[in-house]
Write a structure and sequence with these properties.
- By secondary structure, this protein is mainly alpha-helical.
- It is about 65% helix and about 0% strand.
- It contains three helices and no strands.
């Protein structure tokens, strides 16, 4: 029974470390990566409208990632 409790405690501690590392990595993302991630969901006329608004204010957003190859 004691072995099971110790194993459970170690698993919970490791899960906490992994979660903290993932949060730290996400919070330290660059501004360009955050903008690209935010714009990934917008396609077509919605994306162009948002890009036009940013261009008018002098901010140039990164272009969406276009996969290379035959599609």
């Amino acid at each position: 029974m004691l072995d099971l409790m110790l194993t459970g405690g170690v698993v919970v501690a490791l899960a906490g470390v992994v979660q903290a590392a993932a949060r730290w990595k996400r919070d330290s993302a660059s501004a360009v990566a955050l903008l690209r991630e935010g714009m990934a969901g917008l396609e077509g006329s919605d994306a162009e409208a948002v890009r036009a608004e940013f261009r008018q204010s002098g901010v140039i957003l990164p272009e969406p990632h276009r996969p290379a190859g035959f599609f």
